[in-house]
Structure formats: structure tokens, C-alpha cells
């Protein structure tokens, strides 16, 4: 066969007319013909191949022959300058493979390289050759395919560079590149980001933007153009589900949503753009990115906007069904739950009570729909005796008073939008009670009440800037006082413009200077008064203006700036003004009638307004019994400045008149408590005796003897009155038992004052056992409460400190509330912090009357420390040695720790604070909860004894505090950002983070409680829709059961330093709590009080949430220790005996506070919300206390009877013994 081939080659050379021998590097030497016509014929003969069917070696020889012939043809083409595209055709590359790594293609590349070297003026590129022969689309597909194989990757990268250069020369846009590199690729991959051409396409976009900066395009905009919006988000959704492309898909989705926001797309526009109604069987197709977009567009109330759009597109009933379905899907469960909650919580509830019995007759939702516009409430007013109207920015609801039927009509969307922007609604009912006029900004709406439809909607011209001046120019709707016709009143800088709405021809202009205001100037219209035209004057006073039917205006009255001006509840044209009078000892209520049908009335209520804040903030007045030409009988509920309520009346009632026209007083400020502290008042004369220092041993013995003498005197006094005044004494005891106030409460530590500071600034001292107010004082809402001394000591009673925002310091006596001292530190130090220093153990000088606890005021700018009271600022304070404190800087989101040092000497002190450490929190992290060790906390034991008698040494660090922060970040395995909770335990001295825990899908409220070596906190898991409770314990180490004996003792130190590098080991377990938690509080021994959303308080023993609970069956040692087998669900409802509130509930439970008593295992518990709840609690059962209803008299009588019987029987026994001896 080889001989045959050689002969064939020789024959080929012989038939050539003229030959020339050319040797080229890289190719074998061969002859090329000068006759182009004969060349193709020879090639055709040489390219014939013979296929063998028997599979012998002849086929390999023929393939070798074919390769050789192809190389000969290529070399001959090179010699005569044949274009590369003809050489490509002659090589007959199999394009069905879409592969640039074949030997034929490599030969073509070699040919092009050699051609360019031989013909530098006719340079060609491989890509242009490929593109001219196969077309751009096929060429791009072949290059992409080559990029997937290592053997051809370098060739494909070269071709890619030539391809980009060719496209850039031709000015091809990135959109063209998408068609060639991405959409042209027949890939098995799921999304565009996984396609082979994705990386090259991004590179081309960068190259295009550098070459043509004026035509710059972003990848996101190009993809949106090519794929169209309706399909682009589907590609993004597929990419987000793939972990490999999740990050880049999130980036492009964010850019996509930002672009839509920049284009001003509404929530409804994007809803339709994403074609969510089409993909309802696949809720993730567009639903989640649409929700993300709404959250970007609406920062205030995105959930409500989403539900509004969903209702508009699906209808309420259909949407409810879809939400139920979506809640079953993991990807939409959280969104559907939020939307369902918004739908169920929207609307206003109207209720009707019987005024005589107080029975609730009916309650109905007067408007529905989750749009945030309904947050703007217009008013509730009576239309006639049978109907009332509830007005909001989005709807008008007609309520039938008899049966509570509601008819709701939605207002036009443009009007609602204007009302939200104006943040104010002005309305009036027409004189015939058939039409409702509503004004919002420049939009006016005329609403027909009978048919429930808007009959006229128009826009009023806006007030020109030149007419505004210094006044608050605005337009309101009012009625004239004669015919009751609706008038639009516009205030400008110089005049009042009045335009009739029921008769368009009625119009009038009133110059402000013509009003008789004694030179005062009108600056605004009081929008809070809707039934009359009231203007605010520059002096703060308010002028009541009367509008006649001819639209003339006159001043009816001018009332003081103080007090409250309000409409009458019963009479439309009547106003009432309530304010303090005669130095704050009286509250005056005066009526102002704009008509002649109601006689004016005025009366005084005798009340010490100074104790209630000094003024009236709001009032509700009505005169239900009004007779013509007679003084009306009126009643007023006054809301005072401290939120107290008083009922006053001018009725001629003897009992009411004897009480200064005050029927009752309610301290409603107790419904808004912001701070609770406990103190022990001085009950005996011994506690009030002044001491200069802590008593020595002998002095303490003398004090105990005095206590004993006092006890004997009490017993003697009690025994002397036992029989003489038995009936009266028993009556007193029953009274005290009814009030839960034992006569010896102070002996057992039950005599406590609960110091309560309310949001309005009212301070109460509540006697815990008696449930009465010992004293109260109004201090102002700007003050914060601290306790500098919580029990009588060194001859002084309990002491309170009030610190204002401007660093005004006031010291009060805890026993009766009188002021002890005051200081103003704000003027000298500027912005500053108040730090209560540790207690002093003795008086520094003999001249100092009492041992006052020192307060440090630290300047924020210079960190200079000023000490108060002033008499303690001149000498050194040993208690400041190694004193550390910390604070959080909200502006920089930094937690900083400080210590105080004396830069002077013992005589000339100069204290400054120095920063010891700082912890910088990320900007997007927000502190939502903290915990710390409580003052006077008692350590039950320094170790935990296990069942096998081993010891676990508790990590007892009084400087430890807990910090809970939330941040929105992508959770593991999720496609979108979620709320993540970080809980940290920090040493406040060294600033060291002892422990940190992270919880994904965690939302507030977060409740934390800390005691001894354990921390318990709770949060809401949005993914699982449940409250989770985490318990952790910190230990220093352990001692084996045989490691502590007389011959072997473990080595440990008696002291601890926060700067030790050794960290404790932490045990942690999570539990499921079956209901929402509103507040938690820890007490000893080892219990946690849990305030639940139901208003009940549950005593949760620590062993139920002990992180040492084993997950396997208990061993005998673990059973002996009292451990329980781990169960995720905390048992609550099967333990009713652990409910402190029994069958009672505390409405809107906000906080729980506890204090210890002198009796063993007795804790005083105080909980507050809308209600207040107090109880004595004995976690380890009460064993040293008699019940409050114990019959003390019978016990004493029995003791005396036994004593008498003992003496009598002793005498009888002696007589019998003597008689027996004589017998």
C-alpha cells in the first residue's frame, strides 16, 4: 500500500508543467503548481478516501494519507497566497462538533499565523475567517464550546479576543453580544449566570464602555432590554435558588429593583410587570421580588401597601384563599403571615355602650383595607339620632346606631393621596344633613350620604406664596352660626377669605385688622376645633370667631393660652374652656355659646392642680339636660397634665358641692409607668436615730437590746388591750387583713414602698401591702428616677434622686416625698451623664449630718467629673477606686467603658473619667434589649452540686451584662435578607466579650433576665412562627467527686479579676414557649417570672430550662440531682399552680419588678400594665410565716390556759404526793 501511495505522489508531480520548490518552517517541503485550473482537479483526486468494511489496518493508512494530503493542500495555498477562508473550506472542518480543538482547526490556526508572517500586508484573523465562512452565531457557539474543554481553552480565549476586537471595530453593542454569547448558547445550565458565555459577556461590556464612554451601558439595563422585564425576574429567581449563582443574582436583583424605583414605578405597576397573577401556581415567580420592591418604595408601611395591591388585583375573598395556600409553602410562608396579620388588624372599631349600665351593645369594624391612608383618622360624629359617620382619609362609613350595621364607601384614590400628603382632614355636614363636605389639601369632595357616593370632586386653587407671609396659611371648613351652611375659610397674611359651598355665590373677604383683638395678631387657625372658627393669636391666646349667615365675622370671645379649649359633646355651637385658676387651687370650666339657644355656664372645681401638673391638657364636656332660658346641667371629664382624670359638675348636689364640685379622681397616669423602684420606709424611732458610721459590735448589741425592749413594749401593749378593747381590735385586724397589711409588716420586710414614675412625670409612693398611695408628687416628664438609699441607714431614711435631661438634680425623702436638696449641674458641664456612685460606708467628717450617697456628673466633652451633693465634693472618695461604668453612644453606635481617677491629691481632688475600652457595633445593628445583675442580689451558692457529688464552679461576675442587637442580613440557606439576633455577654470592666450567640429569623420583642451565672432570653422566630426561649449557664470549672477531701484540695483563688484571660465554658439550650412573652424577670431561688401576652404571670422554675438537661434517659445520679430530661416544649398550661395571677389577668402587661423580704424564701412581686398586680411569692414554700388570718387571740388564750393549768396541776400533784407520804 505504501508503494502505491508513493507511486501516486510521483505521478502527481510528473503531470505538473512547471514546479518550484519552497521550504516553509512548520510544513514539509512540497511542490506547488502554477496552474490554478489543474490544481483543483488534482486535489479532488487526492481527497478521495476509501472506506474499508472489515476494520483492518488499511483504514489507518487511509486516514494518514488524508491528513498528509490536507497539509499539502494548505501549504500550496500558502505559497500562492490563498485566503484563509478557502483553506478553511479545503480542510473540511466538521462544524457539527462545534469544537475548535480538532487537528484540522489547529492546522487552520497554524496556516493563518504563517500566512500573516509571509504576507504582513494581508493579515487575516482566525475569527474573521470563521465568521465569514460559518456566520457570527455559529462562530460564537464554537468558541463558547471550546471554552468548556481544557485542551481547547487557550485557542478559544484567542478567538474570543479577536471576536471582541472585531465587534468593537464594527460598534456592536452589548445587546448584540447577549444574543451571540448567552441566548445563542444551547446550554443545559439553569440560568444565564451559569452559562459559559456569562464571563466573556461581562468582559465585553467593560471593553465596550471603555471604548465608547458616551454610549455606556450597565449589565442590568442590557439584560432587561434583551430578556424583557417579564422574563428577566424569572431568570433572577432561578439563579437565586442556585448556591453557585446566588450572590451575583442578589446583586443584579438589587440593581434591577433600584432601577424600577428610579423610574417611579408604583407597587401596582411592578405587580403587573412581574405578571404575578399569571404565576400564582408558582408563588416565588415574582411575588418575593415584588415584596422587596415595595419595601424599598414604601419605608413607612410596606405591608399595608402590599395588601392593598393584592386586594385590588385578586379581591379580598380570593386573596384570603391564596394566603392560606401560600402559608403552606416555605418560600412564601413569612410574607403570607404578615399580609394576613395586616388584613386582620386593619380598620377602626366603633362601639356603643349603654350610658346607664355601661353594657357594650355592639362593636363593628367601620372601615376595612390595609392601606396606610387609613392611619389618618378624620373624625367620628353624629349625623342624626339614628346614624353616625366615621371618616378616614380612604373611606366614609355610615353606622346605624340601633343595630351597628355599617356601610362603607371608599374615597377616590387621588383624594386619599392628597389627604396623606396634607396629613389633615377638614369636614362639615351640610345644613340639611344630606351632604358631607371633606377638604384635604387642595382637593374638595362632596359626598352624598344617602346614596354613599361622591357627587363632586374638584381641586381648589392653592394659596400663593405672596399671600402667606408669617401666618400658617390654610383652608378649613366651618359652618355659619345662624343657618348652619358650610363655608370654606382661608387664612392669608392680611385677611380671611370666606366662600360658601352650598351657595357658590356667597363669598366675603374680611381684613384681619378689622377684628377686635386688642392689637394682637392672628397667626393660625386652630384645626382641632371643627364646630367653630377659632384662630390662634401671636400671644398664644385663642379667639373664638362667629360667622353670620351673610359671612360676616366678629370676635365672640378671647380665651387664655393656658388650659384646654374643646367642643361640647352634646351641643354643636358651644365651646368649653377649662384651665387653672387662683394660683392652681381651682379648675375653672366656662362655656362659650355661638347661638342664643343655650345659656352660658361657668363653675369652679376645687382641686390642688399643682399636685396634678398644674394645668388641664384635655377635657370632655357635655350638657345632657339643657332647658331653654335655664342654666344647663353640665358634666366635665378633665384630663390633667399628669394624665389624671377628674369628674366635675355644676349640678346642685349636696355631696358633690361638699367635695368642691369634684365627683371623683382617677390616677390614670399609673397606666403608663416607665420606672419602678423599691424602698423600705423608716417605721420605728430606732431607725431614725442618727449615726456617724457603721455600728461597732458593742453598738450593734445596744441596738439589738433597744429592739428587744421595743418588742416587749409592743407585747405588753397588745396584752393590756386584748380584753379591754377586744372587739375594736378585732375590727382593726379584720380591716388590715382585708387590705393585706399586717400590723408587724416591717418586722418581716413587707413594709415596702413601690416607687413609680409615670410617662407624664408623676411620682407615686405606693404602700405595697396596703395597696394605697402613701404620697405622690408631680415632677415632670423630663426626669428619671434613681434610688440613692433604699432603706433607713445611719439615721437617715430612704432617699430618691431625680435627674432631668438638662442635668437638674433633685433629692427627695422616700418616707414623705419632701425635697432634701437640689442642684443644677447642666449649666457648668454642658451635655453630661449622671452616674450614681457606690455607697459610702461612713461619714467623712463630723460636721457632715448624714451619709449622702455621692452622684457623679460627667461632662461629655471634657470627661470632667463633678460630684454632688456639694458637701461631698471637697474630699477624696475611696469608693471611686477601681470604679468602672459604661454607656452607649447612639450617634456613633459605640459602646464605651470608663473608669474614674483622681488627678489631684487627697486634699485637692480633681476627678476625671478615662475611656477604658470601646466596642464598635456595625451601623446596621440596633440594640433592642439589655440585662444586668440587680443590686443586692444574693448568691445562693458558688457551686452547683451534681448528682454524683461533683462540683461545678459557677462563673460569678457582677460586672457581666447582656446585650441583644438585631441586624438584617442573609440567613444561611435563604435567598433574601432576614432579621438576625446577636446576643452578647460583655465584661463591663475589661470590655471583653465573654460569649456571643447568633439566631437567624429572630424578631423582637426580645426579653432578657440575668442572675448569678445564668442568662435567659426569649425572641420570636419568624420562620417557625413561635416564641423561643434560650437558657445558658456559665461555669469556671469543675471539681471531681473525689478531688475535695482533707488530704487533697483543688487550687482556686479567693479573688477574681476581669482582666484574666481565662474564659468560662458555656452550656446553652433552646426551648419552645407556647405563648408570646411580654416581659421576664428573675428571682431567687432559681426561678424566672414570665409575663405572657395573655396577661398572666408564670413562675418558671430553672430546672425546666436548665441547659444541663440530658437528651437521653436520666441516670440515677441525674435523678438525684433533680435534673429533667430535655424537652423542647416548656410545660406551661399543665402547671396551673405555677400561675401567680391565678384566674386574674393583667391587661397589657409591660413589666415585672421584685424585691426580697426579711423572711426566708419570700419575694414581693409587682407587675404593671393597664392594671397593677401585687403578690407575695414563696418559691421554696413558706415555712416560717403564719397566715394573715391566723387567730392570734386564741393562741394567746390557749397559752395562758396551759400556763394556769400547769400551775394548778403542779399544786394538785404536790398535795397528792404529800398525802401519799403520810399514809
Automatic annotation (TrEMBL):
Record domain EMC1 first beta-propeller: where: 341-668
Gene Ontology CC annotations of this record: EMC complex
Membrane topology: Single-pass type I membrane protein
Transmembrane segments: 1194-1213
Protein family: Belongs to the EMC1 family.
Pfam family, one: EMC1_C
Subcellular location: Endoplasmic reticulum membrane
InterPro entries in the record: Beta-prop_EMC1_1st, EMC1, EMC1_C
Name of this protein: ER membrane protein complex subunit 1
Organism (species): Phytophthora lilii
Keywords: Endoplasmic reticulum, Glycoprotein, Membrane, Signal, Transmembrane, Transmembrane helix
Signal sequence annotation: 1-20
BP terms from Gene Ontology: protein folding in endoplasmic reticulum
Residue ranges of domain ER membrane protein complex subunit 1 C-terminal in the record: 1011-1222
Amino acid at each position: 500500500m505504501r508503494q502505491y501511495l508513493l507511486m501516486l505522489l510521483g505521478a502527481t508531480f510528473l503531470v505538473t508543467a512547471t514546479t518550484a520548490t519552497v521550504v516553509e518552517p512548520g510544513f514539509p517541503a512540497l511542490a506547488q503548481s502554477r496552474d490554478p485550473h489543474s490544481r483543483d482537479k488534482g486535489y479532488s483526486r487526492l481527497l478521495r478516501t476509501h472506506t474499508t468494511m472489515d476494520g483492518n489496518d488499511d483504514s489507518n493508512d487511509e486516514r494518514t494519507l488524508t491528513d498528509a494530503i490536507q497539509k499539502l493542500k494548505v501549504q500550496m495555498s500558502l505559497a500562492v497566497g490563498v485566503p484563509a477562508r478557502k483553506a478553511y473550506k479545503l480542510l473540511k472542518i466538521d462544524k457539527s462538533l462545534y469544537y475548535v480543538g480538532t487537528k484540522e482547526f489547529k492546522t487552520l490556526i497554524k496556516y493563518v499565523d504563517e500566512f500573516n508572517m509571509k504576507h504582513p500586508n494581508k493579515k487575516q484573523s482566525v475569527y474573521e475567517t470563521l465568521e465569514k465562512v460559518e456566520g457570527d452565531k455559529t462562530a460564537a457557539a464554537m468558541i463558547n464550546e471550546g471554552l468548556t474543554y481544557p485542551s481547547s481553552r487557550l485557542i478559544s480565549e484567542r478567538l474570543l479576543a479577536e471576536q471582541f476586537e472585531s465587534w468593537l471595530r464594527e460598534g456592536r453593542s452589548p445587546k448584540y453580544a447577549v444574543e451571540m454569547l448567552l441566548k445563542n448558547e444551547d446550554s443545559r445550565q439553569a440560568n444565564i449566570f451559569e452559562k459559559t458565555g456569562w464571563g466573556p459577556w461581562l468582559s465585553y461590556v467593560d471593553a465596550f464602555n471603555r471604548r465608547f464612554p458616551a454610549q455606556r451601558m450597565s449589565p442590568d439595563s442590557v439584560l432587561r432590554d434583551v430578556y424583557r422585564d417579564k422574563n428577566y425576574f424569572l431568570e433572577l429567581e432561578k439563579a437565586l435558588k442556585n448556591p453557585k449563582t446566588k450572590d451575583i443574582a442578589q446583586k443584579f436583583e438589587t440593581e434591577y429593583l433600584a432601577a424600577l424605583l428610579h423610574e417611579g414605578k408604583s407597587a401596582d405597576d411592578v405587580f403587573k410587570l412581574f405578571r404575578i397573577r399569571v404565576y400564582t401556581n408558582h408563588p416565588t415567580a415574582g411575588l418575593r421580588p415584588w415584596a422587596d420592591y415595595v419595601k424599598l418604595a414604601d419605608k413607612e408601611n410596606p405591608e399595608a401597601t402590599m395588601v392593598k395591591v393584592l386586594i385590588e388585583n385578586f379581591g379580598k375573598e380570593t386573596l384570603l384563599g391564596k394566603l392560606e395556600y401560600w402559608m403552606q409553602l416555605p418560600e412564601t410562608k413569612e410574607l403570607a403571615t404578615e399580609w394576613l396579620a395586616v388584613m386582620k388588624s386593619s380598620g377602626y372599631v366603633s362601639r356603643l355602650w349603654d350610658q346607664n349600665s355601661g353594657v357594650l351593645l355592639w362593636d363593628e369594624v367601620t372601615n376595612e383595607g390595609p392601606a396606610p391612608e387609613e392611619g389618618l383618622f378624620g373624625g367620628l360624629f353624629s349625623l342624626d339620632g339614628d346614624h353616625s359617620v366615621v371618616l378616614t382619609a380612604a373611606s366614609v362609613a355610615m353606622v346605624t346606631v340601633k343595630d351597628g350595621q355599617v356601610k362603607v364607601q371608599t374615597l377616590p384614590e387621588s383624594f386619599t393621596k392628597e389627604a396623606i400628603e396634607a396629613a389633615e382632614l377638614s369636614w362639615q355636614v351640610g345644613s340639611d344633613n344630606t351632604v358631607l363636605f371633606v377638604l384635604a389639601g387642595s382637593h374638595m369632595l362632596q359626598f352624598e350620604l344617602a346614596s354613599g357616593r361622591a357627587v363632586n370632586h374638584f381641586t381648589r386653587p392653592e394659596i400663593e406664596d405672596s399671600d402667606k407671609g408669617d401666618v400658617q396659611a390654610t383652608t378649613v371648613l366651618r359652618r355659619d352660626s345662624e343657618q348652619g351652611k358650610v363655608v370654606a375659610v382661608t387664612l392669608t397674611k392680611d385677611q380671611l377669605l370666606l366662600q360658601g359651598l352650598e351657595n357658590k355665590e356667597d363669598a366675603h373677604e374680611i381684613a384681619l385688622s378689622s377684628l377686635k383683638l386688642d392689637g394682637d395678631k392672628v397667626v393660625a387657625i386652630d384645626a382641632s376645633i371643627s364646630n367653630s372658627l377659632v384662630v390662634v393669636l401671636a400671644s398664644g391666646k385663642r379667639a373664638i370667631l362667629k360667622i353670620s349667615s351673610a359671612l360676616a365675622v366678629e370676635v365672640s370671645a378671647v380665651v387664655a393660652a393656658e388650659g384646654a379649649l374643646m367642643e361640647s359633646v352634646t351641643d354643636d355651637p358651644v365651646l368649653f374652656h377649662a384651665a387653672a385658676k387662683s394660683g392652681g387651687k381651682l379648675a375653672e370650666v366656662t362655656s362659650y355659646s355661638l347661638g342664643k339657644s343655650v345659656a352660658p355656664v361657668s363653675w369652679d372645681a376645687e382641686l390642688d392642680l399643682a399636685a396634678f401638673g398644674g394645668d388641664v391638657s384635655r377635657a370632655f364636656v357635655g350638657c345632657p339636660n339643657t332647658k331653654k332660658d335655664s342654666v344647663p346641667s353640665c358634666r366635665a371629664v378633665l384630663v390633667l397634665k399628669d394624665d389624671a382624670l377628674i369628674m366635675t359638675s355644676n349640678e346642685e348636689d349636696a355631696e358633690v358641692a361638699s367635695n368642691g364640685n369634684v365627683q371623683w379622681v382617677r390616677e390614670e397616669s399609673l397606666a403608663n409607668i416607665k420606672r419602678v423602684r423599691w424602698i423600705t420606709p423608716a417605721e420605728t424611732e430606732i431607725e431614725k436615730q442618727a449615726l456617724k458610721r457603721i455600728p461597732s459590735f458593742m453598738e450593734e448589741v445596744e441596738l439589738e437590746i433597744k429592739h428587744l425592749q421595743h418588742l416587749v413594749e409592743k407585747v405588753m401593749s397588745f396584752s393590756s388591750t386584748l380584753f379591754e378593747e377586744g372587739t375594736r381590735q378585732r375590727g382593726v385586724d379584720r380591716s388590715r387583713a382585708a387590705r393585706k397589711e399586717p400590723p408587724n409588716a416591717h418586722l418581716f420586710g413587707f413594709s415596702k414602698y413601690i416607687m413609680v414614675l409615670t410617662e407624664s412625670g408623676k411620682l407615686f409612693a405606693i404602700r405595697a401591702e396596703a395597696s394605697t398611695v402613701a404620697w405622690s408628687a408631680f415632677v415632670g416628664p423630663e426626669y428619671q428616677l434613681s434610688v440613692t438609699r433604699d432603706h433607713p441607714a445611719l439615721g437617715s431614711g430612704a432617699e430618691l434622686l431625680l435627674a432631668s435631661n438638662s442635668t437638674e438634680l433633685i433629692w427627695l425623702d422616700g418616707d414623705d416625698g419632701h425635697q432634701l436638696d437640689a442642684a443644677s449641674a447642666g449649666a457648668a458641664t454642658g451635655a453630661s451623664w449622671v452616674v450614681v456612685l457606690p455607697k459610702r460606708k461612713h461619714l467623712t467628717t463630723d460636721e457632715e449630718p448624714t451619709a449622702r450617697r455621692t452622684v457623679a456628673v460627667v461632662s461629655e466633652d471634657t470627661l470632667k467629673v463633678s460630684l454632688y451633693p456639694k458637701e461631698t465634693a471637697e474630699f477624696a472618695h475611696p469608693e471611686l477606686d477601681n470604679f468602672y461604668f459604661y454607656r452607649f453612644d447612639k450617634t456613633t453606635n459605640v459602646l464605651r467603658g470608663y473608669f474614674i481617677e483622681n488627678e489631684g491629691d487627697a486634699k485637692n481632688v480633681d476627678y476625671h473619667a478615662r475611656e477604658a475600652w470601646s466596642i464598635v457595633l456595625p451601623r446596621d445593628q440596633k440594640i433592642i434589649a439589655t440585662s444586668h445583675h440587680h443590686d443586692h442580689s444574693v448568691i445562693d451558692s458558688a457551686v452547683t452540686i451534681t448528682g454524683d457529688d461533683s462540683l461545678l464552679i459557677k462563673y460569678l461576675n457582677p460586672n457581666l451584662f447582656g446585650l441583644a442587637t438585631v441586624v438584617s442580613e442573609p440567613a444561611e440557606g435563604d435567598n433574601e435578607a432576614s432579621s438576625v439576633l446577636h446576643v452578647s455577654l460583655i465584661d463591663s470592666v475589661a470590655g471583653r466579650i465573654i460569649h456571643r450567640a447568633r439566631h437567624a429569623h429572630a424578631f423582637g420583642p426580645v426579653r432578657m433576665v440575668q442572675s448569678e451565672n445564668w442568662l435567659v432570653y426569649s425572641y420570636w422566630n419568624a420562620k417557625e412562627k413561635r416564641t423561643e426561649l434560650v437558657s445558658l449557664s456559665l461555669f469556671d470549672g469543675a471539681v471531681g467527686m473525689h478531688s475535695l477531701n482533707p488530704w487533697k484540695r483543688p487550687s482556686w483563688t479567693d479573688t477574681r479579676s476581669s482582666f484574666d484571660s481565662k474564659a468560662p465554658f458555656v452550656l446553652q439550650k433552646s426551648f419552645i414557649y407556647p405563648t408570646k412573652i411580654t416581659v421576664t424577670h428573675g428571682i431567687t431561688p432559681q426561678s424566672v417570672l414570665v409575663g405572657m401576652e395573655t396577661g398572666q404571670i408564670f413562675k418558671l422554675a430553672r430546672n425546666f430550662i436548665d441547659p444541663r438537661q440530658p437528651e437521653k434517659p436520666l441516670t440515677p445520679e441525674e435523678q438525684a440531682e433533680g435534673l429533667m430530661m430535655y424537652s423542647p416544649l416548656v410545660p406551661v398550661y399543665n402547671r396551673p399552680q405555677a400561675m401567680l395571677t391565678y384566674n386574674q389577668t393583667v391587661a397589657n402587661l409591660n413589666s415585672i419588678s421584685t424585691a426580697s423580704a426579711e423572711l426566708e424564701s419570700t419575694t414581693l412581686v409587682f407587675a404593671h400594665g393597664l392594671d397593677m398586680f401585687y403578690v407575695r411569692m414563696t418559691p421554696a414554700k413558706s415555712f416560717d410565716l403564719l397566715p394573715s388570718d391566723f387567730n392570734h387571740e386564741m393562741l394567746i388564750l390557749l397559752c395562758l390556759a396551759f400556763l394556769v393549768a400547769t400551775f394548778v396541776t403542779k399544786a394538785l400533784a404536790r398535795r397528792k404526793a404529800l398525802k401519799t407520804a403520810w399514809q
